[in-house]
Amino acid sequence: MLFAVIGVSVGKARDEIMAIYPRHKAFLDQFLARGDVVGVGPFTDPGGGNMALFRNRDAAEAFAKSDPFYLEGTSRISLREKIFREVVSNLLVHREYTDATPATLIIYRDRVETTTPAIPHGHGVIRLDRFTPFPKNPTLSKFFMQMGRGEELGSGVLNVSKYLPFYAKGAKPRFIEGDPFVTVIPLPSEAGVKTEAESSAQSKQKSKQNNSDRLLELVRRNKTVTTLELVASLELSRAGVQKIIRRLKKTNCLRRIGPDKGGHWEVIR
How many distinct structural domains can be found in the chain? Predict the structure, then answer.
Protein backbone atom coordinates (compact mmCIF):
# COMPACT_ATOMS: atom_id res chain seq x y z
CA MET A 1 0.00 0.00 0.00
CA LEU A 2 1.22 3.50 -0.88
CA PHE A 3 0.35 6.74 0.88
CA ALA A 4 -0.17 10.00 -0.99
CA VAL A 5 0.53 13.50 0.25
CA ILE A 6 -1.07 16.13 -1.97
CA GLY A 7 -0.16 19.79 -1.91
CA VAL A 8 -2.28 22.44 -3.60
CA SER A 9 -2.10 26.22 -3.67
CA VAL A 10 -5.19 27.88 -2.24
CA GLY A 11 -5.50 31.53 -3.20
CA LYS A 12 -1.77 32.18 -2.90
CA ALA A 13 0.28 34.24 -5.33
CA ARG A 14 3.00 32.49 -7.29
CA ASP A 15 5.67 34.70 -5.70
CA GLU A 16 4.58 33.60 -2.21
CA ILE A 17 4.74 29.95 -3.21
CA MET A 18 8.09 30.24 -4.96
CA ALA A 19 9.61 31.94 -1.91
CA ILE A 20 9.01 28.77 0.13
CA TYR A 21 9.38 26.18 -2.64
CA PRO A 22 13.20 25.73 -2.35
CA ARG A 23 12.88 24.80 1.34
CA HIS A 24 9.98 22.48 0.56
CA LYS A 25 12.00 20.79 -2.21
CA ALA A 26 15.09 20.40 0.00
CA PHE A 27 12.93 18.80 2.71
CA LEU A 28 11.34 16.41 0.22
CA ASP A 29 14.79 15.46 -1.12
CA GLN A 30 15.68 14.05 2.31
CA PHE A 31 12.83 11.53 2.01
CA LEU A 32 13.80 10.73 -1.58
CA ALA A 33 17.39 10.03 -0.51
CA ARG A 34 16.20 7.56 2.14
CA GLY A 35 14.02 5.74 -0.37
CA ASP A 36 10.79 6.67 1.43
CA VAL A 37 9.23 8.16 -1.73
CA VAL A 38 8.13 6.07 -4.70
CA GLY A 39 7.18 8.93 -6.99
CA VAL A 40 6.67 12.68 -7.09
CA GLY A 41 4.39 14.78 -9.26
CA PRO A 42 5.98 17.13 -11.81
CA PHE A 43 7.65 20.24 -10.42
CA THR A 44 7.65 22.16 -13.69
CA ASP A 45 4.96 24.42 -12.24
CA PRO A 46 5.20 24.31 -8.45
CA GLY A 47 2.51 26.98 -8.23
CA GLY A 48 -0.02 24.39 -9.41
CA GLY A 49 0.57 21.98 -6.54
CA ASN A 50 2.22 18.56 -6.39
CA MET A 51 1.86 15.04 -5.05
CA ALA A 52 4.27 12.55 -3.51
CA LEU A 53 3.71 8.81 -2.98
CA PHE A 54 5.29 7.35 0.18
CA ARG A 55 6.07 3.73 0.96
CA ASN A 56 4.66 3.86 4.49
CA ARG A 57 2.30 5.92 6.63
CA ASP A 58 4.97 7.05 9.13
CA ALA A 59 7.08 8.67 6.42
CA ALA A 60 4.05 10.33 4.83
CA GLU A 61 2.87 11.76 8.15
CA ALA A 62 6.36 12.92 9.10
CA PHE A 63 6.66 14.77 5.80
CA ALA A 64 3.18 16.30 5.99
CA LYS A 65 3.68 17.60 9.54
CA SER A 66 7.02 19.31 8.91
CA ASP A 67 6.77 20.39 5.28
CA PRO A 68 7.54 24.17 5.12
CA PHE A 69 4.33 24.61 3.09
CA TYR A 70 2.27 23.01 5.86
CA LEU A 71 3.36 24.68 9.10
CA GLU A 72 1.44 27.87 8.44
CA GLY A 73 0.33 28.02 4.84
CA THR A 74 2.81 30.23 3.03
CA SER A 75 3.44 32.49 6.00
CA ARG A 76 6.57 32.00 8.09
CA ILE A 77 5.86 32.32 11.81
CA SER A 78 7.71 32.22 15.10
CA LEU A 79 6.54 29.09 16.89
CA ARG A 80 7.56 30.53 20.23
CA GLU A 81 5.52 33.67 19.58
CA LYS A 82 2.54 31.65 18.36
CA ILE A 83 2.58 29.32 21.37
CA PHE A 84 3.06 31.89 24.09
CA ARG A 85 0.63 34.37 22.59
CA GLU A 86 -1.99 31.66 22.99
CA VAL A 87 -0.82 30.87 26.52
CA VAL A 88 -0.97 34.51 27.67
CA SER A 89 -4.31 35.08 25.93
CA ASN A 90 -5.78 32.07 27.74
CA LEU A 91 -4.33 33.37 31.00
CA LEU A 92 -6.24 36.63 30.60
CA VAL A 93 -9.41 35.52 28.86
CA HIS A 94 -10.30 32.51 30.96
CA ARG A 95 -9.53 33.74 34.48
CA GLU A 96 -12.23 34.30 37.08
CA TYR A 97 -12.12 38.03 37.79
CA THR A 98 -14.24 37.87 40.94
CA ASP A 99 -11.30 36.03 42.55
CA ALA A 100 -8.51 38.37 43.70
CA THR A 101 -5.86 35.65 43.50
CA PRO A 102 -3.24 36.82 40.98
CA ALA A 103 -2.59 34.88 37.80
CA THR A 104 1.02 33.69 37.51
CA LEU A 105 3.43 32.86 34.70
CA ILE A 106 6.67 31.28 35.93
CA ILE A 107 9.60 30.31 33.70
CA TYR A 108 11.50 27.29 34.99
CA ARG A 109 14.59 25.62 33.62
CA ASP A 110 12.63 23.10 31.57
CA ARG A 111 9.09 24.49 31.37
CA VAL A 112 6.75 27.43 31.67
CA GLU A 113 3.84 27.12 34.08
CA THR A 114 0.82 29.38 34.34
CA THR A 115 -1.96 29.40 36.90
CA THR A 116 -5.11 31.46 36.85
CA PRO A 117 -8.21 31.51 39.06
CA ALA A 118 -11.08 29.77 37.33
CA ILE A 119 -14.51 28.30 37.75
CA PRO A 120 -13.67 24.78 36.57
CA HIS A 121 -15.74 22.93 34.03
CA GLY A 122 -14.47 19.53 35.15
CA HIS A 123 -11.24 18.49 36.88
CA GLY A 124 -7.95 16.96 35.81
CA VAL A 125 -5.74 16.96 32.74
CA ILE A 126 -7.56 17.91 29.52
CA ARG A 127 -7.45 15.18 26.87
CA LEU A 128 -7.64 16.38 23.29
CA ASP A 129 -9.67 13.36 22.20
CA ARG A 130 -12.34 14.35 24.73
CA PHE A 131 -11.84 18.10 24.65
CA THR A 132 -14.95 20.28 24.49
CA PRO A 133 -14.26 24.03 24.74
CA PHE A 134 -16.28 25.91 27.32
CA PRO A 135 -16.55 29.74 27.38
CA LYS A 136 -15.51 31.05 30.79
CA ASN A 137 -15.72 34.72 29.80
CA PRO A 138 -17.66 34.93 26.50
CA THR A 139 -17.69 38.74 26.36
CA LEU A 140 -13.95 38.99 27.00
CA SER A 141 -13.26 36.22 24.48
CA LYS A 142 -15.22 38.11 21.83
CA PHE A 143 -13.30 41.31 22.65
CA PHE A 144 -9.95 39.51 22.19
CA MET A 145 -11.08 38.04 18.88
CA GLN A 146 -12.14 41.46 17.63
CA MET A 147 -8.69 42.80 18.50
CA GLY A 148 -7.06 39.93 16.62
CA ARG A 149 -5.57 38.54 19.85
CA GLY A 150 -7.74 35.47 19.92
CA GLU A 151 -9.38 33.02 17.58
CA GLU A 152 -12.34 30.70 17.92
CA LEU A 153 -13.31 29.07 21.18
CA GLY A 154 -10.82 26.38 22.16
CA SER A 155 -8.16 27.52 19.68
CA GLY A 156 -5.63 28.13 22.46
CA VAL A 157 -5.50 24.52 23.59
CA LEU A 158 -5.56 23.23 20.02
CA ASN A 159 -2.93 25.62 18.64
CA VAL A 160 -0.50 25.07 21.50
CA SER A 161 -0.91 21.31 21.12
CA LYS A 162 -0.34 21.63 17.37
CA TYR A 163 2.80 23.78 17.43
CA LEU A 164 4.58 22.75 20.63
CA PRO A 165 6.00 19.45 19.27
CA PHE A 166 7.83 21.47 16.59
CA TYR A 167 9.13 24.05 19.07
CA ALA A 168 10.23 21.56 21.74
CA LYS A 169 10.77 18.33 19.85
CA GLY A 170 8.07 15.80 20.68
CA ALA A 171 6.86 17.74 23.73
CA LYS A 172 3.22 17.84 24.77
CA PRO A 173 1.54 20.59 26.78
CA ARG A 174 -0.57 19.89 29.84
CA PHE A 175 -3.76 21.78 30.52
CA ILE A 176 -5.14 20.96 33.96
CA GLU A 177 -8.75 21.95 34.58
CA GLY A 178 -9.47 23.05 38.12
CA ASP A 179 -9.22 26.07 40.39
CA PRO A 180 -6.70 27.33 39.53
CA PHE A 181 -6.47 26.38 35.86
CA VAL A 182 -2.88 25.26 35.23
CA THR A 183 -0.94 25.18 31.95
CA VAL A 184 2.46 23.49 31.64
CA ILE A 185 4.56 24.16 28.52
CA PRO A 186 7.82 22.17 28.19
CA LEU A 187 10.76 24.17 26.81
CA PRO A 188 13.44 23.10 24.33
CA SER A 189 16.57 22.11 26.26
CA GLU A 190 18.61 24.95 24.71
CA ALA A 191 15.99 27.52 25.74
CA GLY A 192 15.76 26.56 29.39
CA VAL A 193 16.53 29.09 32.10
CA LYS A 194 19.57 28.32 34.23
CA THR A 195 18.97 27.59 37.87
CA GLU A 196 20.37 30.03 40.43
CA ALA A 197 22.99 27.47 41.43
CA GLU A 198 24.10 26.96 37.82
CA SER A 199 24.29 30.69 37.15
CA SER A 200 26.29 31.21 40.33
CA ALA A 201 28.66 28.36 39.47
CA GLN A 202 29.18 29.71 35.96
CA SER A 203 29.83 33.20 37.31
CA LYS A 204 32.39 31.90 39.80
CA GLN A 205 34.14 29.83 37.14
CA LYS A 206 34.30 32.81 34.79
CA SER A 207 35.66 35.01 37.58
CA LYS A 208 38.33 32.43 38.40
CA GLN A 209 39.40 32.25 34.78
CA ASN A 210 39.51 36.03 34.40
CA ASN A 211 41.66 36.45 37.52
CA SER A 212 44.00 33.69 36.39
CA ASP A 213 44.40 35.27 32.96
CA ARG A 214 45.03 38.69 34.48
CA LEU A 215 47.67 37.32 36.84
CA LEU A 216 49.48 35.53 34.01
CA GLU A 217 49.45 38.73 31.96
CA LEU A 218 50.98 40.68 34.87
CA VAL A 219 53.71 38.06 35.21
CA ARG A 220 54.46 38.19 31.49
CA ARG A 221 54.99 41.94 31.79
CA ASN A 222 57.11 41.70 34.93
CA LYS A 223 58.70 38.37 35.84
CA THR A 224 59.83 39.70 39.20
CA VAL A 225 56.45 41.01 40.27
CA THR A 226 55.80 40.45 43.96
CA THR A 227 52.75 38.98 45.65
CA LEU A 228 51.92 42.35 47.17
CA GLU A 229 52.04 43.97 43.75
CA LEU A 230 49.72 41.28 42.40
CA VAL A 231 47.34 41.89 45.32
CA ALA A 232 47.22 45.59 44.48
CA SER A 233 46.81 45.08 40.72
CA LEU A 234 44.15 42.37 40.95
CA GLU A 235 42.36 44.01 43.87
CA LEU A 236 42.22 40.66 45.66
CA SER A 237 43.27 39.53 49.10
CA ARG A 238 46.72 38.04 49.65
CA ALA A 239 45.08 34.66 50.29
CA GLY A 240 43.11 34.99 47.04
CA VAL A 241 46.25 35.68 44.99
CA GLN A 242 48.13 32.82 46.62
CA LYS A 243 45.23 30.49 45.85
CA ILE A 244 45.35 31.47 42.15
CA ILE A 245 49.12 30.94 42.10
CA ARG A 246 48.76 27.46 43.63
CA ARG A 247 46.11 26.57 41.04
CA LEU A 248 48.28 27.83 38.15
CA LYS A 249 51.27 25.89 39.46
CA LYS A 250 49.18 22.74 39.81
CA THR A 251 47.96 23.03 36.21
CA ASN A 252 51.51 23.68 34.94
CA CYS A 253 50.71 27.21 33.79
CA LEU A 254 53.14 28.98 36.12
CA ARG A 255 56.32 28.19 38.04
CA ARG A 256 58.73 29.94 40.31
CA ILE A 257 62.42 30.02 39.41
CA GLY A 258 64.67 30.61 42.39
CA PRO A 259 63.80 31.74 45.93
CA ASP A 260 61.03 34.11 46.94
CA LYS A 261 63.58 36.90 47.21
CA GLY A 262 65.80 37.22 44.16
CA GLY A 263 63.91 34.71 42.00
CA HIS A 264 61.35 35.27 39.22
CA TRP A 265 58.19 33.88 37.71
CA GLU A 266 57.94 31.95 34.46
CA VAL A 267 54.74 31.48 32.46
CA ILE A 268 54.76 27.98 31.02
CA ARG A 269 51.67 28.27 28.83
Answer: 3
